[in-house]
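Checklist before submission:
- one chain only
- standard amino acids only
- sequence pasted in full

Submission:
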Amino acid sequence: MGQVLDDGAVRRWCRLAADALGRTRAEIDALNVFPVPDGDTGTNLHLTVIAAADALDGTPEGGAAAWRALAQGALLGARGNSGVILSQVFRGLADTLGPLEAPPDGAAFAAALGHASGLARGAVEHPVEGTILSVLAEAAAACAAAAEPAGAAADLAAAARAAAGGARRALRRTTGQLDVLARSGVVDAGAAGLCVVLDALVAVITEEFPERYEIPARVAGTPAPVEERPEPQGPGYEVMYLLDAPDDAVHALRERLDGLGDSLVVVGGDGLWNVHVHVDDAGAAIEAGMAAGRPHRIRVTYLHAAGGEPHAAHTGRAVIAVTAADGLAALFEECGARVVRREPGTVPPLAVLAEAILAAGDEVAVLPNEPEVLSLAEAAAERARDGGARIAVVPTKASVQGMAALAVHDPLRRFAEDVIEMTRAAGATRFGHLEVAAQEAVTSVGLCQPGDVLGLIEGDVATIGADIADVARNVLGRMLSGGGELVTLIAGRHAPPGLTGDLEAHLRRVRPDVEVGVYDGGQERFPLLIGVE
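Returned file contents:
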């Protein structure tokens, strides 16, 4: 039995919860009829926990770092109404458990969950029973009841099991607490996702892992759901943004946003906030944020784009890839993407990229393929969303990541699922490149002179040498040291003849288990691009 919720257990919990939500995402999405029947609650919760898990992966082990990273990662990556509320749950746990010198027992966990429940409810302007909030409150109450008899020595596993059990019982009752749930014969989608997160926590603490996580399709004794999902009602846009603002500015912001729409949730603190609201005037909601502080990572989603049927097929699915090289453009087009060209060393004009997105279809995934293009792609996507299209920017920082994303693209999947798979494939691809130094410079591995060959891995100089092939072999060795099954080599315009062939032969000798793909990218600046999956 694990029985400990230490730094390592927090990390395992977050990854297990992300995996469990990934497996149950479609079932939770199908329950989503409140507050808007847009069929994305499971997807939003999954993406929120993935963001938290990614933040944990980049955090050193020990102390309160894990709890802080969990809360901050969820805050920055929260998606949708339920995702924002879940981020506040993580913050409440972090507030109480992070400062502890020893791993928490059952009483400490119960206190933390109670604090998290209070924070989450306080973040919602108009709390509604029969939602994730009431299920969280029941979980906290059950946890406290289990911990109370044993006092300070309360068993952590018993407390966690009580919380998960209380949540499951409360989940069943949500159908009778909201008319829209009763008419559809379903439980609340956000609450179902919370149950999965708590079940994952029990599994990590007890080391008893379920074969599957139960998502009730329909509550027994309720009428069978009607064939069509409820027609979307209420405001037309979901507006979300991060906000840098002093704490004393948030009260006025809440009042202003509350007057503009509904489903208002504001979470965060210490100068950084995540704002979520449904409105008819998206511009006014953004302006309210500007009056309070500096809004960024703005996302505007048209809630009624699917005509009340989020599972309907879309004929306008497309992927847009940004590149500056002829060969790379041809590769992306062969993989089914539409290409937006840019001049080497520049980014495409915002208007050009936004226009291309609008012309592509009503569901568009954008592959920036360069760190410098990423923020521009986000801005262009926001402009395109004003027209009602569903736009997602897959955060590819290199062309090899864009190719990996395209390799798993499936236009027959639901759009959100397709974007998740593309994002996962891109994130699993390590990238590197070779570059010839144009001037003397100080790098992380020493001084380089004009003409030196630099080997970079994910943007950082890893090695300096005089021979391109030698540097390439060094970079490949470093990148494969962490594992890999597929190596992609893309030759640039100024690559020496035979470079990729020599490297392919080298890999056959030293890593015969690795598959190698060789392409001609024609990129101007980099003699070689490298990807490892």
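Reviewer check: Confidence is low (pLDDT under 50) at residues 219-230, 305-315.
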